[in-house]
Amino acid sequence: MDEGKLIVFSAPSGSGKTTIVRYLLAQEELKLDFSISATSREPRDNEVDGKDYYFLDLKSFKQKIKNDEFLEWEEVYRDNFYGTLKSEIDRIWAQGKHVIFDIDVVGGLDIKKIYPDRTLAVFVKPPSIEELKIRLKKRQTESDDKINMRVAKASIELATAPQFDHIIENNDLNEALKEAYTLVADYVGAANSPGS
């Protein structure tokens, strides 16, 4: 295999990027593995440490920043850090796979800056801010305050879309999945169709 590649999917929360990334991971011919982010936030009910995120306490997270252990990191909300450990990229490339990220826009663009020739950066755009709010409420995982905070952040994030290599508008999930598959398959050189 050539050098491993990086595939970044970024979007405002609720745009459907996680669903798209999970679908792509299931397509074995793409040889993808998921970059598990580290976070200082508390796990949600169904989340598993080392599978969904590496859950670190605030002190440990800040120590890893000091030790330069992150490829990128960001304080997304106050005392709420997210980041990509360099060891995570090394782990996946050592398996001969490409790294796929489900990451916020700032982190996604940071990775593109660090590895411009090895990164495909894709922005997943929701149909509208109103639709985004509906999707976030349907999740029933967060308070109205937290949802309003995410919606306010989404407006800022949408302005970064032109900085990405591709924008997928997620009006119809099946179409978005097909478009994402084609982009990634072309980028990593996989000639097969999904699931073949």
Structure report:
- The chain has 196 residues and is of the alpha/beta class.
- The protein has a single domain, classed as 3-Layer(aba) Sandwich (Rossmann fold).
- It contains seven helices and nine strands.
- It has a five-stranded parallel sheet, with helices on both faces. Strands 4-3-6-5 form a four-stranded mixed sheet, with helices on both faces.
- Strand 5 and strand 6 form a beta hairpin.
- The protein is globular.
- The relative contact order is 0.23.
- The mean pLDDT is 90.
Précis, in short:
With 196 residues, the protein is α/β, with parallel strands linked by helices.
Describe how the helices and strands are arranged.
Layout: E1 6-10, H1 17-25, E2 32-34, E3 38-39, E4 54-55, H2 58-66, E5 70-77, E6 80-85, H3 86-94, E7 98-103, H4 105-114, E8 119-125, H5 129-139, H6 144-158, E9 166-169, H7 173-188
Parallel strand pairs: 1-7, 1-8, 2-7, 3-4, 8-9
Antiparallel strand pairs: 3-6, 5-6
